[in-house]
């Protein structure tokens, strides 16, 4: 499939896809005219890359992780340590977001009801 098709199917911009290719995260073949062509299996890989990026991993970490997902036996102790650090960072971030959500919930619970606000502003 062409880069535009891959972009539409994954939600990744064409620019992002070119960047992923430059970083070695995805592969493309080239037509005689130089156009990129991607196998359909790249769709799942791009979706995974986007998920890992959304979780806060950088492309260098993703480049280390992707081969181990396909071939778990290739994982090294160093990569395992790195993944533990990333997992712990995500756990801390989740805890912070939960605390923020709970604080917002307390403010909302203590606020006047929305109906009261609309009634007083309409007067």
TrEMBL record:
Domain HTH merR-type: start-end pairs: 1-68
Name of this chain's protein: MerR family transcriptional regulator
Natural source organism: Microbacterium gilvum
Keywords: DNA-binding
UniProt cross-references to PANTHER family, sorted A to Z: MERR FAMILY REGULATORY PROTEIN, REDOX-CYCLING DRUG-SENSING TRANSCRIPTIONAL ACTIVATOR SOXR
InterPro entries: DNA-bd_dom_put_sf, MerR-type_HTH_dom, MerR_fam
One Pfam family in the UniProt entry: MerR_1
